[in-house]
Write a structure and sequence with these properties.
The protein is built from three helices and eight strands, in the order βαβββαβαβββ. It has 133 residues and is of the alpha+beta class. Strands 2-3-4-1-5-8-7-6 form an eight-stranded mixed sheet. The longest helix has 12 residues.
Amino acid sequence: MLKIEHLGIAVKDLQKSIPLFEQLLNTPCYKTETVTSEAVNTAFFQTGDSKIELLEASKAESPIGKFVDKKGEGIHHIAFEVENIEAEMKRLAALGFELLNESPKKGADNKLVCFLHPKTTNGVLIELCQEIR
Ligand code: ZN
């Protein structure tokens, strides 16, 4: 894995959290994007070589909505950038890690993504991501 590409943080209200993180990080939100397939609204901030991704449920049955209901706002996932997502998925599946999607899917911020089930990663939801070139 190349680096921590971003940290995903679940929030209740993006319109409140965007200015808060702009103040905290002292950098403007450079992109907002809705990922319809995941029922999530996202906002991105660049922090050096990594990013912060804020995630807000775009409807009630959203996985992010369920997460916030259960655990409250907070760190939701860690995303690692990989060179070749399909090779990395094969490598991890062979080691017994449970992949949440069988083939890479289109995520926010021009990425192919795959998530690993937290039950095989010490409770941490892991995202693999590869830039779509
Ligand atoms: Zn992410």
